[in-house]
Amino acid sequence: MIAxxxxxxxxxxxxxxxxxxxxxxxxxxxxxxxxxxxFVVSCRILPLPNxxxxxxxxxxxxxxxxxxxxxxxxxxxxxxxxxxxxDPADNSGVLSYIRLEYTxxxxxxxxxxxxxxxYGVGNGTVVDHLQSYKGSDDGLEWFGGTVNVKYLVATxxxxxxxxxxxxxxx
Length: 170
What we know:
Layout: H1 2-13, H2 23-26, E1 29-30, E2 37-39, E3 59-62, E4 74-75, E5 82-83, E6 94-101, E7 105-106, E8 112-113, E9 116-119, E10 126-133, E11 140-143, E12 149-155, E13 162-165
Parallel strand pairs: 1-6, 2-6, 3-9, 6-10, 9-11, 10-12, 11-13
Antiparallel strand pairs: 4-5, 7-8
């Protein structure tokens, strides 16, 4: 089950905002309260030797919702993926009952990976019951977008627990 979700996540997470999405790609990761999904560096999905802050880059989602910068689009800090647009109801799928551990990585002072990063994600996206644990940068960061979130926890991240760069759009 976890391997299937991981493959679905990788396929969905690599989509750029201007590419087409199938209905299968709309569901990024979803798990019920009875079994929270954990992404840790010691699991089979990400077998990295360092089980500590900064071991892997976290989850980054680029959507098509409005952003608070000049122009309708911008490029993400990681991978220079385009994000933003004019669809406040953009649907980037579901992120529910997920805990990320030991995320974040500083490529430079201006380019840092967080636990969860939302680039122009719209309010058609479901985001709830997330935890970022012991990351090397922000627990959760938003770059514009209109996504509504609930039940978020950021524990012992080295920078901000919650960070809004380019604000949140109404």
